[in-house]
Amino acid sequence: MSKQLLIGIDVGSSGVRVELYDEEGSLIAVGRSGIARQDVKEWIEAVRKAMPHIVKECIDCEKHVSIDSTSGTFIAIDKHGEALYGPVMYYEKKIEVFEGVKNLPEVQELAKRGITTDAASPYIKILYMKRALKELYNNVYKFVPAATWLLYKLCYPKGEEWSDVKTDYTNALKFGLDITTTPPTWFKPLFDALEIDLDKLPGLAPSGEFICKAKSELAEELGLKNASVYQGMTDGNAAALAGGALDKGDVNIYTGSTTVPKVSVDKIVIHPALYYHIHPLNGYLAGSATGFTGAYLSWFAEKVLGLTIEEALRYAEVVEAGTEYLFFPYGDRGPFYDSSLTPALVNMVMYEQPREVVIGRLLRSMVLGIALLENSYLRLFEKTFNMRIADVNLTGGGSRSRFWNRLRASIYEKRVVIHGDLVGVGTVIPIIYRSGLYTRITEIKQRFLRPVDFVEPDRELVNIYKRFKEGFENKWMKLRELYRG
């Protein structure tokens, strides 16, 4: 029997990571490469550089590959899969277009079905293209998510027409998916109202569904010729699965440039701060994606204070707990979806202390504000789904600081389980599950999920931060009055 090689490719906005696992869940190799600019050729080159040598060297391996990438990012392609326009990144916005359609009954109805529209929604940007770039729009064969485009690039040789192009349910979500139907379908009334041609969107499939045997030149260059290619997912969903959100009640928070809280549930309860994915295994993933959190902290540290993020966290760690200012992150995405809500630092007072302490207080305030945002979602999950969360699973670059994780655990008043930043395992879990390699979720957790740390609440910090937690969301909402005044 040939050796099974499970390959999860994570294509983020700043780099590519390729993770290789065997069928026992052991990590065999990891490859990384940075992305300097958002360009489809740059993405492919980064995948080439990140692919571990063992993929080519293991000639007799049975290879299985899937890809995750940023949610809401898309490329407009022709019939041969060549990019006509894009990538259009998830964070790009068309505010004027959004303002003109946000009150349409169809937009409101989609919100009732768990999908919130904002200025960065893909169909808002597709509508912009139809209005401002009509000739280009007319020439588009399909608008496809980033992960989908990369997967099909493995399938089709250059020059061959693409057919039966499908995207997975998680990537389809922000494009206007109705997840209340079985199986999920595009929400046709929305596209009719916006006069967007539905045939320019791909078909639909679950994560982990077989697509093809790889036969492109790119696949051969990567050592993936004849590999089995499977439907992927968004990076947020990959992170959620890699971070333990496999079974009902499991919670994961991905903390990086943005913050992505998710909980595995068996029903949809509509709430304006939540949207839903079809869980790649069973049920749904309820959650959100915030505006820039870690990205803002890094920007402030580097551009304003001239510090690396590692230096910034060291400054923050030595500041006395409870002396922080109140920091509110971006509210342009979850939980408020209000583009006017930019970050604010309030309640600032003067302290006669060394400059290093003052700098540390500013930074610790931001760290605290991000943790308070995360906690607001945990409270929302418990209230909305009538559940009690025991552990909070963390993934992403923002989970590397033990100081920050101790602060988090104390604010949450829950144990924090750290899974590190390897999300590719989440990308391959649906392959494992749907192929029947392992059918019990508990066994998948035992074999493929390897927490790197556990952090308990500090009782002293729990008491100190109670006053910061009180009314945090209400105070944040009051910023609207200031910004709109």
Automatic annotation (TrEMBL):
InterPro entries xref list: ATPase_NBD, Carb_kinase_FGGY, FGGY_C, FGGY_Carb_Kinase, FGGY_N
Domain Carbohydrate kinase FGGY N-terminal residues, every copy: 6-241
MF (Gene Ontology): kinase activity
SUPFAM superfamilies listed in its UniProt record: Actin-like ATPase domain
Any Pfam family matching the protein: FGGY_N
Record flagged with keyword Kinase: yes
Keyword terms, alphabetized: Kinase, Transferase
All copies of domain Carbohydrate kinase FGGY C-terminal, residue ranges: 326-420
GO terms under biological process: carbohydrate metabolic process
Alphabetized PANTHER family for the sequence: GLUCONOKINASE, SUGAR KINASE
Protein name: Carbohydrate kinase
Organism whose genome encodes this protein: Ignisphaera aggregans
